[in-house]
User: What shape does this take?
Amino acid sequence: MESMKYRQVLLMHLLAIFGLSIICGCAALGPKKIQRPQVPPDFPFPVVWLQPKAKAVRINELTQRELWGLVMVKKWSEGDRDFVGTSMDMDTGKVYLYYPNVVYVKWEDTQLPDGTITKYVSEISGADDTIRDQVREGILPPGVLVLDMEDMDSSGIDPYEYLSD
Assistant: This one.
């Protein structure tokens, strides 16, 4: 009985903290106030805030998709029209825009039986399945740019920092 009461109190607290902000639509925007931009008429991707409520899925997807959309609309409005999609690293919250000949990788070290330390691709992200498979196998196709996901200067966008500029 006591554990049930504890769960009810916990649930009420969680609803109080997250529920109202989700219902209001501001939880997806995080701690900083971010205004939704006007979506250019030629913008080729759907944005979650213009979708009918019936298409809304899980809350965490709305959060990701809203941030993706906000970043993509801003990039598009700034003249960057080469990206073909996007993703988000759930560990860092960074948004990665997908370009045709770019892949983002995370590297890990492994020790070979002879004691040699070597690096391998532990995670890979990008628009083209074939390129991702080749890079994962250690093949670098000509003209493909491989960016380190953990390199703060060369890849990924902190959506809150970028959108608050």
Observations:
- Residues 64 and 88 are 7 Å apart (CA to CA).
- Confidence is low (pLDDT under 50) at residues 1-31.
